[in-house]
Amino acid sequence: MIIQPRVRGFICLTSHPEGTAQHVKQQIDHVKSKGKIENGPKKVLVIGASTGFGLASRITAAFGTDAATIGVFFEKPAAPGKPGTAGWYNTAAFENEAHAAGLYAKSINGDAFSDEIKRQTIDLIKEDLGQVDLVVYSLASPRRTHPKTGVAYTSVLKPIGQVFTDKTVDFHSGVVSDISIQPVESEEDINKTIAVMGGEDWKFWIEQLKDAGVLADGVKTVAYSYIGPELTYPIYRNGTIGRAKDDLEGTVPVLNDLLEGIGGISYVSVNKALVTQSSSAIPVVPLYISLLYKVMKEKGIHEGTIEQMQRLFAERLYANGEIPLDEKGRIRVDDWEMREDVQTEVAKLWKQITTENLEQISDIAGYRKDFFNLFGFSFDTVDYDKDTNEVVKILSIKE
Questions:
Q1: Which residues are catalytic?
Q2: Annotated binding residue at 276?
Q3: What is the DSSP string of 372-384?
Q4: Using the 8-state DSSP alphabet, how is residue 333 labeled?
Q5: Which fold has domain 7-143+187-276+303-334?
Q6: How far apart are CA 346 and CA 359, in angstroms?
Q7: Given pLDDT bands bounded at 50, 70 and 90, which one contains residue 107?
Q8: Annotated binding residue at 136?
Q9: Is 292 marked as a binding-site residue?
Q10: Catalytic positions (predicted)?
Q11: What are the domain boundaries of the chain?
Q12: Which candidate, 257, 233, 255, places its Cα nearest to that of 245?
């Protein structure tokens, strides 16, 4: 079938198998260009492995350290006349490349919050790898059904305490406008968001993996967070999502106690603001990212997800010597984003930005391209007017 992008708001409803394969290949090529990461992990579990930072983590582990990888995710398979999700196609492309390189790579498709998927993952580790020495937790979902109680929670994207008003952009039309977002009405909305996006499920995974004996001595586990600049605080760090991130970060000492007996350690890595399916949904953030991209590209320090993850592995998690942490014990690979010169310039542009000057003083074009790249579109090497085979299989998944 011929697959063209169909967009509804911040979601692209279609994805292209050849384009996503191109995107995966570009990321692999970047990791290869950086050379092997010394003392890297060899058996890796990535929870939330099909897009964004999770996919980039899996690619970095496989092609940066020759690691065997198991990826867990929840994606829609392709069917005749119906494209699969981008994450499905990403994983199919990744497995093809990994197997061609002689690397072990298997995947599990299902609800990672569920005990059943945890059991399936543990069984696969026992059967094929014995143990894993790195667990990456990179789930991004708006909903979670609690595996113990069966209660379904939906996260809420709102400020806390007062109405938030600031600029935002429709990155498709290029219209800059003011937006006002009402605060949460109750503590219950905050608790729902924590239940979905906080650290409880990460803890459940590590507990069950440890109890099953599939965590190697000295295992590392890392989850991902974001802080950002003051201008996004009301909707992000000081909002409902921020409370969930506080909970995620607060899980680190709990996991460290849990892993102490096997010499393991947990980390939260604070990453840079990037175009992802999740960040595109947050008001204000796309406009901030388009200005950030402009400034960082001009300074020659721009990074995408794969550059971030390669640097995290090579210069933090598996670098020689002690891992540098901030005052709250977090790894910071948002350090270039948060440089004073970068943030000063972004703040100056923020005051100036309008619909009329958006294309000139921001990198909204780069934002749009990155957004469509997520779904396999806007690659010069792909002819989107030609038929493509939409039914793509993931080698390790029996449908």
A1: 236
A2: yes
A3: HHTTT-S-TT--T
A4: S
A5: Rossmann fold (3.40.50)
A6: 15
A7: very high
A8: no
A9: no
A10: 236
A11: 7-143+187-276+303-334
A12: 233
